[in-house]
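Human: I hope this is not a bother. Would you mind checking the protein record under this note? Thank you for your patience.
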Amino acid sequence: MKTKREVPEKIVFRGTADQLEQAGDYVLILSYLRSRRTGQILGPLVALFLVCAALLRYQRDNLTRTVVYVILAVLVGAAVMRKTTGEEPVQAVAENRRSRETARAKGSYDGDLPFRIELDRGECRVYFQEEGGDKLYQLFDCRKFRMAIECDEIVWIAGKKLFGLPLPKAQLVDASPEDLRRWLRPYAAIWLRYKIPDKLKGAVGS
């Protein structure tokens, strides 16, 4: 009989700014995949609704006009799918990387800057190590989170009006991804999981 593991009191991540920024690149891809799934659902539904309306109209209209309505319905459904899929993520990730390199060249970005993220007592705290010790950079009330979107590399936590934060699994300290899931579950009413295609993974790792 399996014993239920306790929820860890505290979850800690440690790494560098570059590793946290790379986790942010995965957020761009997850956002795209989520939007694409929404478009794949909404597009056909809109088209089906319009086709049904066109067929009802056919009862008191001519066939040619009905065919035109059906074609327009399919085009509208396709347009909805394109509208909701967002920007091509490979381009967005590449643009993100260029921005970092430009900032690095100007001396305004240090990819080796150490960070620490703590999930503790219903709060998410982000620290960066600067002269004089760690400095609190962001503080989140986890009760404002609503959704967790997960892939093999990160868990992205976000709220209805809160963009949230990417949590890189590789930077977990003395905890497993399963520990992280158990800690976050009370704060994530929606939990989605995506498998990122190798082509899109390559955009982050290249």
Confidence is low (pLDDT under 50) at residues 38-51, 63-86. The longest helix spans residues 17-58.
